[in-house]
Design brief:
About 40% of the residues lie in helices and about 15% in strands. By secondary structure, it is of the alpha/beta class. It folds into two domains: about 240 residues, 3-Layer(aba) Sandwich (Aspartate Aminotransferase, domain 2), CATH 3.40.640; about 130 residues, Aspartate Aminotransferase, domain 1. The radius of gyration is 22 Å and the shape is globular. The protein binds pyridoxal-5'-phosphate. The site of pyridoxal-5'-phosphate (PLP) has 14 residues, from α4.
Length: about 400
Protein backbone atom coordinates (compact mmCIF):
# COMPACT_ATOMS: atom_id res chain seq x y z
CA UNK A 1 0.00 0.00 0.00
CA UNK A 2 1.13 3.55 -0.72
CA UNK A 3 0.14 5.38 2.44
CA UNK A 4 -0.47 9.07 1.73
CA UNK A 5 -2.74 9.94 4.65
CA UNK A 6 -0.15 10.97 7.20
CA UNK A 7 -2.12 14.04 8.28
CA UNK A 8 -4.83 11.67 9.55
CA UNK A 9 -2.35 9.50 11.37
CA UNK A 10 1.14 8.10 10.94
CA UNK A 11 2.66 4.67 11.26
CA UNK A 12 4.57 4.29 14.53
CA UNK A 13 8.33 4.47 14.17
CA UNK A 14 10.49 1.54 15.26
CA UNK A 15 12.06 3.89 17.81
CA UNK A 16 8.67 4.64 19.37
CA UNK A 17 7.64 0.97 19.51
CA UNK A 18 10.97 -0.01 21.04
CA UNK A 19 10.72 2.74 23.65
CA UNK A 20 7.27 1.53 24.70
CA UNK A 21 7.89 -2.20 25.06
CA UNK A 22 9.71 -2.14 28.44
CA UNK A 23 6.75 -0.26 29.94
CA UNK A 24 4.28 -2.99 29.00
CA UNK A 25 6.15 -5.92 30.50
CA UNK A 26 9.10 -4.56 32.49
CA UNK A 27 8.50 -1.36 34.42
CA UNK A 28 5.11 -2.21 35.88
CA UNK A 29 4.82 0.25 38.78
CA UNK A 30 2.38 3.09 39.26
CA UNK A 31 4.30 6.41 39.25
CA UNK A 32 2.33 7.43 42.36
CA UNK A 33 3.53 4.42 44.38
CA UNK A 34 6.32 4.91 46.89
CA UNK A 35 8.04 1.54 46.41
CA UNK A 36 10.95 1.19 44.03
CA UNK A 37 8.82 -0.21 41.18
CA UNK A 38 6.66 2.89 41.42
CA UNK A 39 9.66 5.16 41.66
CA UNK A 40 11.18 3.63 38.52
CA UNK A 41 7.95 4.49 36.71
CA UNK A 42 7.95 8.00 38.20
CA UNK A 43 11.52 8.55 37.01
CA UNK A 44 10.62 7.45 33.50
CA UNK A 45 7.67 9.82 33.54
CA UNK A 46 9.85 12.76 34.63
CA UNK A 47 12.41 11.87 32.01
CA UNK A 48 9.77 11.77 29.24
CA UNK A 49 8.36 15.13 30.34
CA UNK A 50 11.81 16.71 30.26
CA UNK A 51 12.60 15.33 26.84
CA UNK A 52 9.31 16.56 25.39
CA UNK A 53 9.86 19.98 26.96
CA UNK A 54 13.34 20.15 25.43
CA UNK A 55 11.83 19.66 21.96
CA UNK A 56 9.45 22.60 22.49
CA UNK A 57 11.75 25.08 24.19
CA UNK A 58 9.92 24.95 27.52
CA UNK A 59 10.31 23.36 30.95
CA UNK A 60 8.97 19.98 32.10
CA UNK A 61 6.59 21.69 34.54
CA UNK A 62 4.88 23.37 31.60
CA UNK A 63 3.93 20.02 30.01
CA UNK A 64 0.64 18.24 30.83
CA UNK A 65 -0.12 14.88 29.28
CA UNK A 66 -3.48 14.45 27.56
CA UNK A 67 -5.26 11.77 25.55
CA UNK A 68 -4.33 13.53 22.32
CA UNK A 69 -4.74 16.69 20.31
CA UNK A 70 -8.49 17.03 20.79
CA UNK A 71 -8.23 16.91 24.57
CA UNK A 72 -5.31 19.34 24.58
CA UNK A 73 -7.31 21.80 22.44
CA UNK A 74 -10.39 21.48 24.67
CA UNK A 75 -8.33 21.85 27.83
CA UNK A 76 -6.35 24.84 26.54
CA UNK A 77 -9.39 26.78 25.39
CA UNK A 78 -11.49 25.93 28.45
CA UNK A 79 -8.62 26.96 30.73
CA UNK A 80 -8.12 30.30 28.99
CA UNK A 81 -11.88 30.88 29.02
CA UNK A 82 -11.99 30.24 32.77
CA UNK A 83 -9.12 32.68 33.36
CA UNK A 84 -10.91 35.25 31.21
CA UNK A 85 -14.26 34.75 32.90
CA UNK A 86 -12.68 35.42 36.31
CA UNK A 87 -11.64 38.84 34.97
CA UNK A 88 -14.97 39.43 33.24
CA UNK A 89 -13.39 38.97 29.81
CA UNK A 90 -15.47 36.72 27.61
CA UNK A 91 -14.36 37.29 24.04
CA UNK A 92 -12.31 34.78 22.05
CA UNK A 93 -10.68 35.21 18.64
CA UNK A 94 -10.02 32.31 16.31
CA UNK A 95 -10.19 31.48 12.59
CA UNK A 96 -12.56 29.75 10.19
CA UNK A 97 -10.03 27.03 9.34
CA UNK A 98 -9.40 25.54 12.79
CA UNK A 99 -9.77 21.85 13.60
CA UNK A 100 -13.19 20.83 14.93
CA UNK A 101 -11.65 20.20 18.36
CA UNK A 102 -11.19 23.98 18.50
CA UNK A 103 -14.31 25.09 16.61
CA UNK A 104 -16.71 22.86 18.55
CA UNK A 105 -15.20 23.89 21.89
CA UNK A 106 -15.74 27.52 20.88
CA UNK A 107 -19.34 26.72 19.88
CA UNK A 108 -19.92 25.19 23.31
CA UNK A 109 -18.44 28.28 24.98
CA UNK A 110 -20.74 30.54 22.95
CA UNK A 111 -23.68 28.72 24.54
CA UNK A 112 -22.08 29.47 27.90
CA UNK A 113 -22.04 33.21 27.23
CA UNK A 114 -18.73 33.78 25.48
CA UNK A 115 -18.57 35.70 22.23
CA UNK A 116 -16.37 34.33 19.47
CA UNK A 117 -14.87 36.10 16.46
CA UNK A 118 -13.81 33.72 13.69
CA UNK A 119 -11.41 35.50 11.37
CA UNK A 120 -11.41 34.96 7.62
CA UNK A 121 -8.29 33.71 5.89
CA UNK A 122 -6.98 34.69 2.47
CA UNK A 123 -7.22 32.52 -0.66
CA UNK A 124 -4.18 30.54 0.49
CA UNK A 125 -5.49 29.98 3.99
CA UNK A 126 -3.28 32.57 5.66
CA UNK A 127 -4.45 34.49 8.71
CA UNK A 128 -3.59 38.20 8.63
CA UNK A 129 -1.91 39.21 11.93
CA UNK A 130 -3.24 42.77 11.48
CA UNK A 131 -6.78 41.37 11.52
CA UNK A 132 -5.97 39.58 14.76
CA UNK A 133 -4.75 42.86 16.25
CA UNK A 134 -7.83 44.77 15.07
CA UNK A 135 -10.18 42.13 16.47
CA UNK A 136 -8.70 42.31 19.99
CA UNK A 137 -10.91 44.28 22.40
CA UNK A 138 -10.88 45.01 26.13
CA UNK A 139 -12.97 41.85 26.51
CA UNK A 140 -10.66 39.48 24.67
CA UNK A 141 -9.24 36.70 26.83
CA UNK A 142 -7.85 34.35 24.18
CA UNK A 143 -6.59 34.16 20.63
CA UNK A 144 -6.40 30.63 19.24
CA UNK A 145 -4.85 30.14 15.79
CA UNK A 146 -3.50 26.84 14.50
CA UNK A 147 0.21 26.49 13.73
CA UNK A 148 -0.39 24.70 10.43
CA UNK A 149 -3.60 23.57 8.82
CA UNK A 150 -4.33 19.84 8.69
CA UNK A 151 -6.18 19.96 5.37
CA UNK A 152 -4.35 22.44 3.17
CA UNK A 153 -1.00 22.54 5.00
CA UNK A 154 -0.76 26.33 5.25
CA UNK A 155 1.68 27.47 7.96
CA UNK A 156 0.33 30.46 9.86
CA UNK A 157 2.32 33.55 10.96
CA UNK A 158 2.55 32.32 14.55
CA UNK A 159 5.49 34.52 15.61
CA UNK A 160 3.70 37.70 14.50
CA UNK A 161 0.42 36.70 16.15
CA UNK A 162 2.26 35.67 19.33
CA UNK A 163 4.01 39.03 19.52
CA UNK A 164 0.71 40.90 19.11
CA UNK A 165 -1.01 38.86 21.81
CA UNK A 166 1.86 39.31 24.25
CA UNK A 167 1.91 43.06 23.64
CA UNK A 168 -1.87 43.27 24.15
CA UNK A 169 -1.81 41.00 27.21
CA UNK A 170 -4.08 38.39 25.65
CA UNK A 171 -3.45 34.64 26.01
CA UNK A 172 -2.39 32.87 22.82
CA UNK A 173 -3.11 29.21 22.13
CA UNK A 174 -1.98 27.34 19.04
CA UNK A 175 -3.10 23.92 17.85
CA UNK A 176 0.30 22.64 16.79
CA UNK A 177 -0.82 19.08 16.13
CA UNK A 178 0.31 19.18 12.50
CA UNK A 179 3.45 21.15 13.30
CA UNK A 180 5.01 19.34 16.25
CA UNK A 181 7.82 17.08 15.07
CA UNK A 182 7.60 18.60 11.59
CA UNK A 183 8.38 22.30 12.10
CA UNK A 184 10.74 23.98 14.53
CA UNK A 185 8.81 25.17 17.59
CA UNK A 186 10.17 27.31 20.41
CA UNK A 187 7.21 28.17 22.60
CA UNK A 188 8.97 30.95 24.51
CA UNK A 189 10.47 32.61 21.45
CA UNK A 190 7.10 32.56 19.66
CA UNK A 191 5.25 34.02 22.69
CA UNK A 192 2.93 31.02 22.85
CA UNK A 193 0.99 30.58 26.10
CA UNK A 194 -0.74 27.30 25.29
CA UNK A 195 0.13 24.70 22.66
CA UNK A 196 -1.45 21.36 21.73
CA UNK A 197 0.27 18.36 20.21
CA UNK A 198 -0.57 14.74 19.49
CA UNK A 199 1.85 11.81 19.27
CA UNK A 200 0.19 9.90 16.44
CA UNK A 201 0.85 12.75 14.02
CA UNK A 202 4.64 12.31 14.38
CA UNK A 203 4.99 8.51 14.38
CA UNK A 204 4.13 8.06 18.05
CA UNK A 205 1.23 6.07 19.50
CA UNK A 206 -2.44 7.04 19.22
CA UNK A 207 -4.37 8.24 22.25
CA UNK A 208 -1.62 10.35 23.79
CA UNK A 209 -0.78 14.02 23.47
CA UNK A 210 0.46 16.97 25.45
CA UNK A 211 -0.55 20.47 26.33
CA UNK A 212 2.12 23.09 26.93
CA UNK A 213 0.91 25.80 29.29
CA UNK A 214 3.36 28.60 30.01
CA UNK A 215 4.35 29.01 33.66
CA UNK A 216 1.74 31.21 35.32
CA UNK A 217 -1.13 30.07 33.06
CA UNK A 218 -3.27 27.85 35.30
CA UNK A 219 -5.10 24.96 33.67
CA UNK A 220 -8.70 24.16 34.50
CA UNK A 221 -9.32 20.86 36.27
CA UNK A 222 -10.44 18.40 33.64
CA UNK A 223 -10.74 15.22 35.68
CA UNK A 224 -11.15 15.15 39.46
CA UNK A 225 -9.40 12.47 41.46
CA UNK A 226 -5.75 11.89 42.19
CA UNK A 227 -2.86 14.32 42.07
CA UNK A 228 -1.62 13.30 38.61
CA UNK A 229 -0.78 16.14 36.20
CA UNK A 230 -0.71 18.57 39.12
CA UNK A 231 -4.27 17.62 39.99
CA UNK A 232 -5.66 18.93 36.71
CA UNK A 233 -6.13 15.56 35.07
CA UNK A 234 -6.45 12.72 37.52
CA UNK A 235 -5.84 9.11 36.58
CA UNK A 236 -2.85 6.79 36.41
CA UNK A 237 -0.59 7.90 33.60
CA UNK A 238 -0.40 5.95 30.34
CA UNK A 239 3.32 5.37 30.74
CA UNK A 240 3.96 3.18 27.64
CA UNK A 241 2.27 5.76 25.42
CA UNK A 242 4.08 8.65 27.09
CA UNK A 243 7.44 6.94 26.58
CA UNK A 244 6.53 6.27 22.95
CA UNK A 245 5.55 9.91 22.44
CA UNK A 246 8.81 11.21 23.97
CA UNK A 247 10.90 8.90 21.78
CA UNK A 248 8.93 9.77 18.63
CA UNK A 249 9.13 13.51 19.23
CA UNK A 250 12.85 13.41 19.96
CA UNK A 251 13.48 11.39 16.83
CA UNK A 252 11.28 13.69 14.71
CA UNK A 253 12.99 16.81 16.05
CA UNK A 254 16.48 15.38 15.57
CA UNK A 255 15.82 14.54 11.92
CA UNK A 256 13.52 17.49 11.21
CA UNK A 257 15.72 19.37 8.75
CA UNK A 258 16.72 16.27 6.83
CA UNK A 259 13.08 15.09 6.66
CA UNK A 260 11.76 18.49 5.64
CA UNK A 261 14.26 18.75 2.81
CA UNK A 262 13.37 15.32 1.49
CA UNK A 263 9.63 15.79 1.88
CA UNK A 264 9.61 19.23 0.27
CA UNK A 265 11.24 17.81 -2.87
CA UNK A 266 8.69 14.98 -3.09
CA UNK A 267 5.82 17.33 -2.27
CA UNK A 268 6.81 19.75 -5.03
CA UNK A 269 7.23 16.89 -7.49
CA UNK A 270 3.71 15.72 -6.66
CA UNK A 271 2.29 19.25 -6.93
CA UNK A 272 3.97 19.77 -10.29
CA UNK A 273 2.68 16.42 -11.55
CA UNK A 274 -0.91 16.98 -10.46
CA UNK A 275 -0.91 20.56 -11.75
CA UNK A 276 -0.71 19.08 -15.26
CA UNK A 277 -4.28 17.84 -14.85
CA UNK A 278 -6.51 20.40 -16.63
CA UNK A 279 -9.01 22.32 -14.49
CA UNK A 280 -7.24 21.49 -11.25
CA UNK A 281 -6.14 23.86 -8.51
CA UNK A 282 -3.75 23.57 -5.58
CA UNK A 283 -5.32 24.36 -2.22
CA UNK A 284 -3.17 26.21 0.31
CA UNK A 285 -0.06 28.32 0.00
CA UNK A 286 2.52 27.10 -2.51
CA UNK A 287 5.53 27.67 -0.24
CA UNK A 288 4.29 28.46 3.27
CA UNK A 289 3.03 24.92 3.62
CA UNK A 290 3.85 21.76 5.55
CA UNK A 291 6.64 19.81 3.86
CA UNK A 292 4.43 16.74 3.39
CA UNK A 293 1.09 18.29 2.40
CA UNK A 294 -0.52 18.28 -1.04
CA UNK A 295 -4.18 19.23 -1.55
CA UNK A 296 -5.95 19.71 -4.87
CA UNK A 297 -9.43 20.31 -6.20
CA UNK A 298 -10.38 18.80 -9.54
CA UNK A 299 -13.39 20.20 -11.35
CA UNK A 300 -16.17 17.74 -12.21
CA UNK A 301 -15.01 15.14 -9.67
CA UNK A 302 -16.51 13.68 -6.50
CA UNK A 303 -13.81 13.34 -3.85
CA UNK A 304 -15.26 10.09 -2.49
CA UNK A 305 -15.23 8.33 -5.87
CA UNK A 306 -11.67 9.47 -6.38
CA UNK A 307 -10.65 8.05 -2.99
CA UNK A 308 -12.27 4.68 -3.61
CA UNK A 309 -10.68 4.25 -7.02
CA UNK A 310 -7.28 5.28 -5.65
CA UNK A 311 -7.75 2.77 -2.85
CA UNK A 312 -8.31 0.09 -5.51
CA UNK A 313 -4.92 1.05 -6.90
CA UNK A 314 -3.36 0.67 -3.46
CA UNK A 315 -3.16 4.37 -2.60
CA UNK A 316 -4.50 5.56 0.76
CA UNK A 317 -5.52 9.23 0.47
CA UNK A 318 -8.09 11.57 1.96
CA UNK A 319 -10.67 14.07 0.84
CA UNK A 320 -10.97 16.97 3.25
CA UNK A 321 -10.35 15.84 6.82
CA UNK A 322 -10.87 12.35 8.17
CA UNK A 323 -13.39 13.72 10.64
CA UNK A 324 -15.70 15.11 7.98
CA UNK A 325 -15.40 12.32 5.43
CA UNK A 326 -18.57 10.31 5.65
CA UNK A 327 -20.58 13.48 5.97
CA UNK A 328 -21.89 15.35 2.96
CA UNK A 329 -20.75 18.75 4.14
CA UNK A 330 -17.84 20.06 2.13
CA UNK A 331 -14.73 20.97 4.08
CA UNK A 332 -15.09 24.21 6.07
CA UNK A 333 -11.43 24.91 5.29
CA UNK A 334 -11.92 24.72 1.52
CA UNK A 335 -15.03 26.91 1.79
CA UNK A 336 -13.03 29.42 3.86
CA UNK A 337 -10.40 29.77 1.11
CA UNK A 338 -13.16 30.51 -1.38
CA UNK A 339 -13.83 27.18 -3.05
CA UNK A 340 -17.52 26.84 -3.95
CA UNK A 341 -19.42 23.72 -2.79
CA UNK A 342 -19.11 21.76 -6.06
CA UNK A 343 -15.39 22.34 -6.26
CA UNK A 344 -14.77 21.69 -2.55
CA UNK A 345 -16.41 18.27 -3.01
CA UNK A 346 -13.77 17.35 -5.56
CA UNK A 347 -10.80 17.64 -3.24
CA UNK A 348 -7.93 15.26 -2.71
CA UNK A 349 -5.43 15.43 0.15
CA UNK A 350 -2.19 13.48 -0.13
CA UNK A 351 0.09 13.70 2.90
CA UNK A 352 3.58 12.25 2.76
CA UNK A 353 5.91 10.76 5.34
CA UNK A 354 9.68 10.31 5.49
CA UNK A 355 9.16 6.81 4.17
CA UNK A 356 7.47 7.98 0.97
CA UNK A 357 9.59 7.28 -2.11
CA UNK A 358 9.92 9.04 -5.46
CA UNK A 359 8.62 5.88 -7.16
CA UNK A 360 5.48 6.07 -5.03
CA UNK A 361 5.02 9.73 -5.95
CA UNK A 362 5.40 9.01 -9.65
CA UNK A 363 3.00 6.08 -9.45
CA UNK A 364 0.51 8.30 -7.59
CA UNK A 365 0.72 11.10 -10.18
CA UNK A 366 -0.05 8.61 -12.95
CA UNK A 367 -2.85 6.98 -10.93
CA UNK A 368 -4.56 10.29 -10.09
CA UNK A 369 -4.35 11.43 -13.72
CA UNK A 370 -5.91 8.17 -14.86
CA UNK A 371 -8.68 8.12 -12.24
CA UNK A 372 -9.59 11.78 -12.74
CA UNK A 373 -9.82 11.17 -16.50
CA UNK A 374 -11.93 8.05 -15.98
CA UNK A 375 -14.38 9.77 -13.61
CA UNK A 376 -14.68 12.83 -15.82
CA UNK A 377 -15.50 10.65 -18.82
CA UNK A 378 -18.46 9.22 -16.94
CA UNK A 379 -19.67 12.53 -15.54
CA UNK A 380 -22.65 14.37 -17.06
CA UNK A 381 -21.36 17.56 -15.42
CA UNK A 382 -18.06 17.16 -17.22
CA UNK A 383 -19.88 16.64 -20.54
CA UNK A 384 -21.73 19.93 -20.01
CA UNK A 385 -18.49 21.70 -19.20
CA UNK A 386 -16.77 20.33 -22.26
CA UNK A 387 -19.64 21.18 -24.58
CA UNK A 388 -19.76 24.71 -23.24
CA UNK A 389 -23.23 24.29 -21.69
CA UNK A 390 -21.64 25.13 -18.36
CA UNK A 391 -18.68 27.35 -17.55
CA UNK A 392 -15.63 25.97 -15.86
CA UNK A 393 -15.09 27.31 -12.38
CA UNK A 394 -11.44 26.24 -12.31
CA UNK A 395 -9.98 27.76 -15.48
C1 LIG B 1 -5.35 15.30 14.33
C2 LIG B 1 -5.58 16.70 14.75
C3 LIG B 1 -6.22 16.99 15.97
C4 LIG B 1 -6.78 15.92 16.85
O1 LIG B 1 -5.79 15.14 17.45
P1 LIG B 1 -6.19 13.75 18.15
O2 LIG B 1 -4.94 13.30 18.82
O3 LIG B 1 -6.57 12.84 17.02
O4 LIG B 1 -7.29 14.03 19.08
C5 LIG B 1 -6.35 18.31 16.33
N1 LIG B 1 -5.90 19.30 15.55
C6 LIG B 1 -5.28 19.07 14.37
C7 LIG B 1 -4.77 20.21 13.56
C8 LIG B 1 -5.11 17.76 13.94
O5 LIG B 1 -4.51 17.53 12.77
Amino acid sequence: MIYLDNAATTKMSRTAVTAMLPYFDGVCGNPSSLHSAGQAAAEALTDARERIAACLGCTAKEITFTSGGSEADNQAIRSAAAIGARKGKKHIISTKIEHHAVLHTLKALEKEGFSVTLLDVDENGLVDPRQVETAITEDTCLVTVMFANNEIGTIEPIAEIGAICRRKGVLFHTDAVQAAGHLHIDAAELNIDLLSLSAHKFHGPKGIGALYARKGVPLATLIEGGAQERGKRAGTENLPAIMGMAAALEEACASMEKNAKKLTLLRDRLIDGLSEIPHSILNGDRTRRLPGNVNFCFEGIEGESLLLLLDDKGIAASSGSACTSGSLDPSHVLLAIGRVHDIAHGSLRLTLSEETTQEEIDFTIAAVKEVVGYLRNMSPVWRDLQSGKRDYIIK
